[in-house]
Amino acid sequence: MTAIHPIVSPNFDPQPIDVRFLVLHYTAVDLARTLEIFTDPARKVAAHLVVDVDGAIYECVPCWAGVALRGWHAGVSHWHDGLTRWEALNDWSIGVEIVNFNGNIFPFTDAQYRALARVVGHLRGQYPALAQAEAVLSHEQIAGFRGKADPGWCFDWPRFFTMCYPDQPAPVRAPICPPALRAALARLSEVAPANGSRANAFWERVSLLTETAVALAQR
User: What is the DSSP string of 205-216?
Assistant: First the structure.
């Protein structure tokens, strides 16, 4: 079984949180750039866990051992679960970043789905609220009003829930990126650099433009 790779990030608060949710994101950059951002104190952002394309799992903010500290991954966010309106999801959730330049364009790997099943299986044993499939949210569900559109159209939620919660109905997790915008983004993949610093800069910029367009569409 693949080990969890510890990464020392300064971007969290040293206070334990009452974990009620798991929030999935995509990185918009490759693994090296993701870890560079998450270990840069000036960026003030880090998720608890990162899942690379090969399924390797990195822990940037403590959570794996059963005590989750407050990571900076959700930003301004809210969620209504039918009974309670939850604000500031950093206070209530573990964040998992999945390495992908843009989850509205590019598929996630088989290794990533297997790693996510491992992550969820482990965290379900550590945090009782995560025993329910409804506790797994997308960043776009909790912060789509700010333009967040991850993990996006290409994330296979039915597959994820079948692997991680086979005994429960799969909640609906609809993508927020408008179809026309998704089609426009797909055309960019034909001209984008494939890897390295130029690819990171390109797709990080595209991510910011995507957020602007999605936020405008929500108004």
Answer: HHHHHHHHHHHH
